[in-house]
Amino acid sequence: MATNGSTRPGRRTAIVAGLRTPFLKAGTEFRDLSAVELGAQVVNELLVRSGLDPKLVDAVIFGQVVPSQLVTLIGREVVLRSQLPKSVQAWTVSRACASSIQAATDAADQIALGQADTIVAGGAESLSDAPIFASRKLAQTLVAASRAKGVAGKLQAFASLKLRDVAPVPPALTEPTTGLTMGQSAEQMAQQNGIAREAQDAFSCQSHRRAADAWASGKLAEEVMHVAVPPRYARVAARDNVVRDDATVEALAKLPPVFDRKYGTITAGNSSPLTDGAAAVILMSEEKAKALGLKPLAFLRSYAYAALDPAEQLLQGPAFAAPVALDRAGLRLGDMDLVDMHEAFAAQVLSNLQWFGSKAFAARIGRKEPLGEVDPARLNVNGGSIAIGHPFAATGARMLLQTAREMGRRKAAHALITVCAAGAMGAAVVLDGPET
Ligand SMILES: CC(C)(COP(=O)(O)OP(=O)(O)OC[C@H]1O[C@@H](n2cnc3c(N)ncnc32)[C@H](O)[C@@H]1OP(=O)(O)O)[C@@H](O)C(=O)NCCC(=O)NCCS
What we know:
alpha+beta, 12 strands, Peroxisomal Thiolase, Chain A, domain 1, single chain, binds coenzyme A
């Protein structure tokens, strides 16, 4: 065990810097940029702003959830498109919406083990650039045609194709084993846990208000780079474009439900939107940071991943992961100065918080007491994914950065971050403040 309260074996890992692009609604100003371009831009700018010699970077770990068909290894491609030396090795991770949490915890493990001193971890997503697939029948026909001899043979291969076989197939946001979309699953959770529409809209309104305040006070501007917008590069994206300064519960209450149009409660306003963006953090061993005179933003104290049956409640993973991460940290929910919970949907956040406080759930996972209630004044204090946006693989790094910086402002000792993910998985990370 390390000293200074850390309960993780091995060397202590600091987050020394981080940065993100603005998060923009898919199909808007980042529509001509790919995930890898967004990722390379954020890593390049992060290195410049951190003042770190790129030669000191041992590895890059990057996440991408909706894969690009042309660039499959985003981690390595980010290295090759940035100012990092070509000798920097890299790998790509995918744990759905927790992908850049996975990148960061992989980095922390490498650092703890002494395999690396400095790692750039992050994620990027372009939902504007989602791959469009050919149907299975069309793909098989194209392969058959390429193998056929002579023009007649090639034409023959296409003979059995029907018009419907040539229709492009968009990527699905459905859970493969249940066939339900994230939104439909969240709708079921709202119904099973009795999460009212009013509570969802109030939570979403607060997310917008807090994010708008964080922008107005200059907090977010310091962690968000400017990106010149192609194709003419005459304009610059400098701010998240989903955040509404004028959000009201009255306006939210007017929106129609989208995933169950008749009886549902989930709307465009209380869901995270489809978003483009990238985010990255630099993780470093405590002693390396000291040697370089860098002041850590926070330390990664513990983490945990967990999963349940997707057919039960798809987005309740955090309720299972958080107790394990807190146990590993040797801390309780009440010790957390800040809690940052990814907002896939307001119904999902409220469902997870309900289970945090539930005696029945505590008994189910073999605990004497529930984790407890989260003080709303400590929860998602600068807004979350509903207002800021949710470029899947970038969200975890955005949360690590946003929380670590807020810990510094509040001189916070501990913070808990949770992310729900497809496959009914959950991630939880406990951070220590820079003075802890
Ligand atoms: C919910 C979803 C289908 C909505 O998509 P959309 O229809 O493109 O959403 P829009 O942004 O166009 O919003 C629809 C309307 O609601 C309005 N609206 C959205 N948020 C609002 C708010 N906070 N206040 C007031 N109005 C709002 C918009 O202005 C728009 O109005 P208009 O139709 O008059 O232009 C889409 O965001 C989605 O699929 N989200 C879930 C993504 C997901 O599954 N993520 C995985 C989670 S891990």
